[in-house]
Amino acid sequence: MNRRHFLKTVGIGAAALAATQGMPALAADAKGKPNFIIIFIDDQGYQDLGCFGSPNIKTPNIDKMAKDGMRFTDFYSAASVCTPSRAALMTGCYPERVGNLGVLFPRNNTGLNPEETTIAKMLKASGYATACVGKWHLGHLKEFLPTSHGFDSYYGIPYSNDMTIAQNMTLAKDIVLREKQTLETLKKPKKNLVPLMRNEEVIEYPADQNTLTKRYTQEAISFIKKSKSDSKNFFLYMPHTMPHIPLYVSPEFEGKSEAGLYGDCIEEIDWSVGQIIKTLKAEGIEKDTFIVYTSDNGPWNLRGNKTDKVKGNMNRRIGGSALPLKGYKFQKYEGGMREPTVMCWPGRIPAGKVCSELAGTIDMLPTIAALSGAKLPEKKIDGKDITPLIEARPNAKTPHEAYFYRTKGVRSGDWKYIDKKLFNLSKDISESKDLAKENPEIVERLKNLLEAHKAEMNKEKRPAGRVGPDQPRRKKKPKKK
Question: Which member of 5, 51, 132, 137 is catalytic?
Answer without folding.
Answer: 137
